[in-house]
Every structure is written in structure tokens, then in C-alpha cells.
Amino acid sequence: MDSVRFREGIKLFNSAEFFEAHEVLEDVWRGAPAAEKRFLQGLIQVAVALHHHSKENRVGARSLLARARRNLSGYPDEFGGINLKPLMESLARWQKALEDAHPVPPLPRI
User: Fold this and answer.
1) Mind spelling out the 3-state secondary structure of the chain?
2) Domain 3-99 class?
3) How far is the C-alpha of 25 from the C-alpha of 10, rounded, in Å?
């Protein structure tokens, strides 16, 4: 995995620049080994889901969050230098809020 671009994508994500984060992480995904592809795909899907939410597309956000959670759930709590447990907990809260049409919690951070 291209660690420089990966860190850049995470920085963009944590700055709520979700479209840009998705673009950078997609570049990393293209060159990643097979064992990391689903992990990266999950992070990309989270970024796209949050981008959809920012454009008031709750249906798209909900759908992508569900796919992201499935992709990330196959990885240990710590993978690729990322502590996935708090991210997964945040995504679960987001998913529930979107499904129940409640206000969403704070933005997840990686």
C-alpha cells in the first residue's frame, strides 16, 4: 500500500473532505495487494457515504454505510495502522440514525 497517499487520504477524510479522500484512497486501492483491497474499499465507501450525506442523499449514504461496514467487519480491530473498533462503532451509530431518520452523530474520524 502507498503509505504516503494513504495518510493523505485519511487526513482528507478527517478534515471532512470526503470526495477528495475517496479519490486519493481509490488511487491507493488500485495498487494495493489483494489482502488490503476490501479494507480500502470499506474506507472509500465510508467517505462516499458521508459525501452523499453532505449532499442530502440519505438513501445513498445509508446504502454505502451498510456496504462499508460489511467490508470492514472482516478485519481485526487494528489494521493498516487504523483502530477500526471506534470507527465501526461510529458507523453503527450513523447507520441507526439514518435508518430511523434521526439526527446523525458527530462525523466519524479515522
Assistant:
1) CCHHHHHHHHHHHHCCCHHHHHHHHHHHHHHCCHHHHHHHHHHHHHHHHHHHHHCCCHHHHHHHHHHHHHHHHCCCCEECCEEHHHHHHHHHHHHHHHHCCCCCCCCCCC
2) mainly alpha
3) 8
Q: What is the pTM of this model?
A: 0.95
Predicted pLDDT of residue 1: 78
Q: What is the pLDDT of residues 25-49, one digit of tens each?
A: 999 999 999 999 999 999 999 999 9
What the block records as the C-alpha cell of 66 is 451498510
Residues of the chain with pLDDT under 50: none
Q: What is the overall mean pLDDT for the chain?
A: 95
Task: Using alpha carbons, list the distances in angstroms from residue 89 to 63, 65, 70, 86.
Answer: 17, 12, 13, 5
Domain spans of the chain, in order of start: 3-99
